[in-house]
Amino acid sequence: MNVLNFLNQQSAVLLWLIFLIENLLVTATSLLFGLLILRRYKIQVPSVTSSEYWLCLLTNLINTAITYAGFWLWQHHYIRLEFSVSWHLLSDFLILFLAMDLAMYIFHYFIHHTAAYKVIHGLHHQYHNPTPIDLYVLHPLETIGFGALWLIVLSAYGFNFYAVIAYLTLNVIFGIIGHLGFEPLPQSITTNPFLKYWGTSSFHHNHHQDINCNFGFYTSIWDRLLGTYKERK
User: Fold this and answer.
1) Full 3-state SS string of the chain
2) N or C terminus: fewer CB in 10 A for the chain?
3) pLDDT tens, residue by residue, 116-138
């Protein structure tokens, strides 16, 4: 709450700068995390083109605008946050996690089965073997779409602030893992009855190899229920 109170006292220009630095730091940290995993498993670190760098920067600028929009919605009480540390933190996290997983599945499925794929989402799918930076290589309209989805879900329920932070952290981790281009987890883990429903690296890699399957992000639950699941390679 002290952080939000501090931000609430800043000018709009300073807020934009703070949110831009925040997004750039998150991106840099996540890319470093991805590269460290690749080196740990002795996977050749892929080269990055200038267009990928520019799209990554553009994604960060749009995410900064989305962050500012979310803060404005909180200032004007469209987004309600609870700051107590209680059992609500866990339940709110689970609700947010599953709600976003379903919402992103629907959005992802939709852009694959409409003209939006050729016009927008096809940019991301030019990478059949994704690398960490490809998490941020998105068409601007797709970044806006995912951001709007996030703000709608966040506005629909009074989530615990710490649950939101936990979700955002896990969101970045899943995003990087999904764009490693290989599966770092042993088969004994990915086929474990309690863990096989998670959206692992190979789960999303299969989606880049076959665009007609595996539309989920964090889990394979909705793909399994709705008949779009494909086994990991």
Assistant:
1) CHHHHHHHCCCHHHHHHHHHHHHHHHHHHHHHHHHHHHHHCCCCCCCCCHHHHHHHHHHHHHHHHHHHHHHHHHHCCCCCEECCCCCHHHHHHHHHHHHHHHHHHHHHHHHHCCCHHHHCHHHHHHCCCCCHHHHHCCCHHHHHHHHHHHHHHHHCCCEEHHHHHHHHHHHHHHHHHHCCCCCCCCHHHHCCCCCCCECCHHHHHHHHHCCCCCCCCCECHHHHHHCCCCCCC
2) N
3) 788 788 777 776 667 888 889 88
